[in-house]
Write a sequence for this structure.
């Protein structure tokens, strides 16, 4: 299997509408492998059938002891089985799925997950036990974002097949030495565990790797953008003690130490030959407006133009009244 093979050729999706897969951008085997669950359900706690109480959501495993089906008025039908283990039996019923009576024959070993109502599990998710690799029950189960025409069991089967056939062909975007220094699992192991985790600890380790990777590439993109900005020619403004004195003379108060540090950093950017890219952050009343005014007047002193913006009209008018007293040519 190749990562570029069509997703719709995999078991579980062959009957799915191509439009449904397209709407989720699931076009290839690689898309399936990287399609992450939105949450997980712990269905690993198998219960003896004889201990089940009404209104519980349970996972049970047993053999099909009897099968019956019926067609009712209004074109409705059901298939019902008696599922038994050494502790007892319980009825499991599915509505409007008449083909199940050909699959769930007597003697079939079955794992079922669902809610018990009046002594019956209705509409259970189930899996015929053929080996120890159950996908839908008896384990921590992935729950995927869906659209009309797709089901979680179908997606699980397809993603499991994709992993079995092509997971070893997925390239790890992070270098091995970085993974080792951060105690992160490799990409293939991460994707295997986030879809079909061995246990809760393995799932949390996989999630930690995914969170780290997302932040890593976000920071990398920011660093690349910053480097690009630094290579872009900018305007180097002239600044000296005389400009500093004339700006401070326009302020009705002396700047605090924190404001002085902020203005020094901003001036260092303004006199550099590349564009400034800076965010000034501070509490209400800490003097951000004064620092912004200082930076604006450095530009004005170099015969430049400045746009002083505010998020609301009320604040804009307030700034206009406050700054008019200071915006004098220097």
């Amino acid at each position: 299997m190749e990562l570029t093979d069509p997703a719709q050729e995999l078991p579980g999706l062959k009957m799915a509408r191509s439009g449904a897969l397209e709407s989720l951008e699931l076009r290839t085997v690689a898309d399936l492998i990287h399609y992450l669950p939105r949450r997980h359900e712990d269905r690993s706690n198998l219960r003896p059938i004889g201990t089940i109480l009404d209104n519980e959501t349970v996972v049970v495993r047993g053999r099909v002891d009897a099968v019956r089906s019926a067609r009712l008025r209004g074109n409705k039908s059901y298939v019902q089985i008696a599922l038994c283990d050494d502790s007892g039996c319980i009825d499991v019923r599915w509505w409007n799925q008449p083909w199940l009576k050909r699959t769930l024959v007597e003697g079939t070993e079955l794992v079922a997950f669902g809610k018990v109502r009046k002594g019956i599990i209705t509409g259970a998710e189930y899996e015929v036990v053929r080996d120890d690799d159950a996908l839908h029950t008896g384990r921590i189960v992935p729950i995927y974002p869906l659209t009309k025409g797709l089901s979680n069991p179908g997606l699980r089967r397809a993603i499991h097949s994709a992993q079995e056939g092509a997971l070893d062909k997925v390239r790890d975007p992070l270098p091995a030495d970085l993974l080792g220094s951060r105690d992160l699992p490799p990409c293939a192991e991460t994707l295997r565990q986030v879809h079909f985790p061995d246990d809760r600890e393995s799932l949390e380790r996989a999630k930690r790797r995914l969170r780290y990777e997302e932040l890593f590439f976000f920071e990398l993109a920011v660093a690349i953008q910053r480097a690009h900005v630094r290579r872009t020619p900018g305007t180097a403004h002239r600044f000296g003690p005389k400009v500093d004195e004339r700006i401070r003379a326009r302020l009705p108060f002396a700047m605090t130490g924190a404001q002085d540090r902020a203005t020094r950093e901003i001036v260092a950017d303004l006199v550099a030959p590349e564009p400034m890219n800076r965010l000034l952050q501070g509490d209400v009343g800490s003097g951000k407006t004064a620092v912004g005014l200082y930076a604006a007047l450095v530009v004005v002193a170099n015969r430049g133009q400045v746009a002083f913006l505010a998020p609301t009209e009320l604040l804009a008018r307030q700034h206009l009244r406050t700054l008019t007293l200071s915006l004098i040519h220097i």
Q: What stands out?
A: Residues 56 and 92 are 14 Å apart (CA to CA).
